[in-house]
Amino acid sequence: MAATIDGHVAHPTEAWEFGSNEDRRRMDRLREWSDCLIVSRKTLEHDNMDLRVRTKPHSKHHPRPVIVAREAEPFRAGLRATRHAAAAQGGEVWFEKGTEANLAALWPDLGAKWDIFFYESVADIVSSLSERGYKKLLLEGGPTLNGLFFSAALVDEFFLTLLPLLWGGKTTDRSVITATPLPMQHFRLRSAEKRGDEMFLRYVRKKRHT
């Protein structure tokens, strides 16, 4: 995630693009490493994301897109944009269990290359991907989806880009959002690198001693 020095991960208007070319280059390196790229439906639509390794669009290796939709709401421009940007490579969409009856009406344009699954907990998603050989998972949010993964203690590392910006306000658009406060989770700072006016931080979860 990229965040301002006062903790924002999104601007109140849509006319704001976070991060620099260096930040996007580093994100692409993580995408090259990963087997799957996990994003929420809302983040996909809000950012109109290209789910490939963007600096290498013709590469033979792109992470498998995994879209998590907490409700059976239709994509608007998001899925169509993703189809084109990802060269119709396909992927999978995960819905909360209990939304099955709405899919036929709400998702008429879901292409044949997109597999549909259902989950009760995001742990179901990780377990299914692991069983199918996808071991290196990259989670790009948004904040509420991040919160579900942190709540299930499924985040091993956290990459944070600190931007030289602030604008105050009263919004709570932090990098991790949960309905209730989490038990304290501890991370170690693995690396910190300054490039220009940005800081690139890598945190690794501390292992509990038993």
Provide a descriptive summary of the structure in words.
25% of the residues lie in helices and 25% in strands. It has helices at 21-33, 41-47, 77-85, 103-106, 122-131, 143-151, and strands at 2-4, 36-40, 64-69, 91-96, 114-119, 137-139, 157-163, 187-195, 198-205. The chain has a five-stranded parallel β-sheet. Strands 1-7-9-8 form a four-stranded mixed β-sheet, with no helix packed on it. The protein has a single domain (2-205), classed as Dihydrofolate Reductase, subunit A, CATH 3.40.430. The two termini are 31 Å apart. Residues 83-88 have low confidence and may be disordered. With 210 residues, the chain is an alpha/beta fold.
Question: Which descriptors apply to this entry?
Answer:
four-stranded mixed sheet, single chain, 210 residues, 6 helices, alpha/beta, 9 strands, Dihydrofolate Reductase, subunit A, five-stranded parallel sheet
Please give the CATH architecture.
3-Layer(aba) Sandwich
Given the C-alpha coordinates, what overall shape results?
A: globular
Main sheet overview: 5 strands, parallel
Number of helices: 6
**Helix-and-strand structural type:** alpha/beta
Distance between the termini: 31 Å
The level of helicity is: 10-25%
What is the CATH T-level topology?
Answer: Dihydrofolate Reductase, subunit A
What is the level 1 CATH name? Alpha Beta
Mean pLDDT: 82
Rg calculated over all Cα atoms: 17 Å
CATH superfamily: Dihydrofolate Reductase, subunit A
Overall structural domain count: 1
What is the N-to-C succession of helices and strands? EHEHEHEHEHEHEEE
Secondary structure tally: strands: 9
Strand content: 25-35%
Order of the strands making up the biggest sheet: 5-4-3-2-6
Low-confidence stretches: 83-88
